[in-house]
Write a structure and sequence with these properties.
With 155 residues, the protein is an all-alpha fold. It has one domain (9-154): Ferritin (Up-down Bundle), CATH 1.20.1260. Helices cover 77% and strands 0% of the residues. It contains five helices and no strands. Helix 1 (9-39) runs antiparallel to helix 2 (45-72) and helix 1 (9-39) crosses helix 3 (81-87). The N and C termini lie far apart (52 Å). It binds fe (ii) ion. Fe (ii) ion (FE2) is lined by residues 37, 53.
Length: 155
C-alpha cells in the first residue's frame, strides 16, 4: 500500500517516527544555540556571538524543512516542547557563558544529530524515498564540514 507520493505506507510511517526525533533534536539544539548567542562572555564574544547566530539561523531553516517533510510523508510533526523534550536525546544547556564550553556542547549536539541523519538516510534508501534521502544527504555533508571546523577551533 503506497501513500500519495508513492512510498510504502509502512516505511513512510517508520521514517516519520525518526524524522520527528530529528525535529525534536533540532528544536532543543536551536534553543541551546540561542542561549549561547545571548549568554556568551569574554574575548571571543564577537566571533562566537555571530557564529551561533549563523548556526541557529541554519537550524531554523532545517526545522521547517524536517516538519514539512513529515507532512509530505503524511505524518504529523511534533510541535510542543513537552513532546520535544520527551523525544530528544539533546540535553538543554542552561546559563553557559564560557565560549569553549559552548562550542564543546555544539560539537556534542551535532554529533548526536549526524547519527540520526545517517539512520534516516538508510531508512530512506530502504523506502526508495529520494526526497528524504537527498535532504539527509545535504544535512550530513553540511554537518560534517561544520564539525570539522568547530573541532579545529577547539584544538
Ligand atoms: Fe541577536
Amino acid at each position: 500500500m503506497k501513500n500519495l507520493v508513492g512510498i510504502e505506507r509502512e516505511k513512510a510511517e517508520k521514517l516519520v517516527v525518526e524524522l520527528n526525533v530529528l525535529l525534536a533534536d533540532y528544536e532543543i539544539f536551536y534553543q541551546n544555540l540561542r542561549g549561547f548567542h545571548w549568554n556568551i562572555k569574554g574575548k571571543e564574544f564577537f566571533e562566537l556571538h555571530g557564529k551561533f547566530e549563523e548556526l541557529y539561523n541554519d537550524a531554523f531553516v532545517k526545522i521547517d524543512e524536517i516538519a514539512e517533510r513529515i507532512l509530505t510523508l503524511e505524518g504529523e510533526p511534533l510541535h510542543t516542547y513537552t513532546d520535544y523534550l520527551k523525544a530528544t536525546e539533546i540535553k538543554e544547556a542552561k546559563s553557559v557563558t564560557d565560549g569553549e564550553k559552548c562550542v564543546e556542547i555544539v560539537v556534542k549536539n551535532f554529533s548526536t544529530l549526524i547519527v540520526k541523519e545517517r539512520l534516516i538516510l538508510s531508512l530512506a534508501a530502504d523506502a526508495e524515498d529520494e526526497g528524504t534521502l537527498s535532504l539527509m544527504s545535504d544535512y550530513i555533508s553540511e554537518t560534517e564540514k561544520t564539525l570539522w571546523m568547530l573541532n579545529s577551533y577547539l584544538k
